[in-house]
């Protein structure tokens, strides 16, 4: 059986604590996924257009410290992720989707 994230490309958008983002990325790699870097998500070459269905855009649902209107921050992160997904053909998930998928040993539904 292939690894959980085999064939999937992950792009992390928005603000993350560096060590936490690194841990999430390590989980993706351990699960057979690949990471897209900042400038490679929005480019659309032939190879990347073939993999659009397998591109996962991950936004953070971690509440930022010291911010009064937390829901608006999370909402803004989601809007940015959805906008990028519309541009690239990717699917949007929160960082908790990664954890839920790992816990269930199967990919969970996306937005």
Automatic annotation (TrEMBL):
SUPFAM superfamilies: BRCT domain. It holds the Pfam family BRCT_2. GO terms for cellular component: nucleus. One of its GO terms (molecular function) is ubiquitin-protein transferase activity. It is found in: Nucleus. Residues 1-111 form the BRCT domain. Keywords: DNA damage, DNA repair, Nucleus, Repeat. One of its GO terms (biological process) is double-strand break repair via homologous recombination. Its main location: nucleus. It comes from the Eukaryota. This is BRCT domain-containing protein. It comes from Nymphaea colorata. The lineage of its organism: Eukaryota, Viridiplantae, Streptophyta, Embryophyta, Tracheophyta.
């Amino acid at each position: 059986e292939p690894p959980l994230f085999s064939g999937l490309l992950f792009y992390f958008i928005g603000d993350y604590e560096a060590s936490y983002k690194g841990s999430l990325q390590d989980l993706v790699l351990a699960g057979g996924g690949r990471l897209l870097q900042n400038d490679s998500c929005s480019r659309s070459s032939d190879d990347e257009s073939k993999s659009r269905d397998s591109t996962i855009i991950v936004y953070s649902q971690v509440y930022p410290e010291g911010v009064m209107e937390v829901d608006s921050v999370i909402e803004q992160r989601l809007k940015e992720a959805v906008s990028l997904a519309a541009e690239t053909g990717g699917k949007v998930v929160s960082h908790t989707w990664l954890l839920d998928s790992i816990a269930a040993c199967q990919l969970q539904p996306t937005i």
